[in-house]
Amino acid sequence: MDSATSEANPGTTQSASDRPPLLSTAANGLKIVIVGGFGVGKTTMVRAVSDIRPLNTEETMTRAGEGVDDLSAVRGKSTTTIAFDFGRISLNESTVLYLFGAPGQERFWFLWDRLFSGTLGAVVLVDTRRLDECWYAIDRLEAHGTPFIVARNDFGGPRHTAEQVREALDLSEDIPLVDCDARSRESSRDVLLALVHHLYALSTARTAREITP
Ligand SMILES: Nc1nc2c(ncn2[C@@H]2O[C@H](COP(=O)(O)OP(=O)(O)O)[C@@H](O)[C@H]2O)c(=O)[nH]1
Ligand SMILES: [Mg+2]
User: Fold this and answer.
1) Where is this region: Disordered (predicted)?
2) Which one of 25, 44, 50, 160 counts the least CB within 10 Å of its CB?
């Protein structure tokens, strides 16, 4: 089955054959990471926004994940990402954005040092029914000084206010919190745009500080 039109992507209509090859003029590569707990929608989001048929390393859940990956809140999910998702978006003729979906669980963080290097910023994807799963990722990103935003993936169910989510995550005012549906290309693109705006605001503030005598 074509992953671009799989069940995980009901909001995505683009087929793999519509997706353009990488232009030979592409000289600049930018990197963004999407991180989050198990089943928050990382693979779904990378698939939704990628120009190419994304690579991923979904593996059928094995006994190794039993009792470790909490399936109780993720009905119908029988696979778990053991390493990364990888997707690509061509921004213009010379610039390509690379997207990495990475597991936030503590046991995978040995993979992260390499991944962080050269990363522009990160999206922390959260499921508000299981907020505790992203604490570790937020903590690591803050410790590493990697800029990030938080995107709340909509799985239905009870809605929390933005203030409640901020308080539960102990999120400071200057970190954007946005809502999304990872299955939708438009919504996932808006999440990436929110991150880019945040990065731009941070860099403008830094420049202003540098030129202030
Ligand atoms: N209702 C709903 N389901 C979603 C959404 N995003 C992902 N899912 C489903 O949640 C499950 C887990 O998503 P997946 O992308 O595999 O999570 P990952 O472990 O973070 O890569 C899949 O069955 C998705 O189809 C969403 O925004 N809304
Ligand atoms: Mg996944």
Assistant:
1) 1-22
2) 25
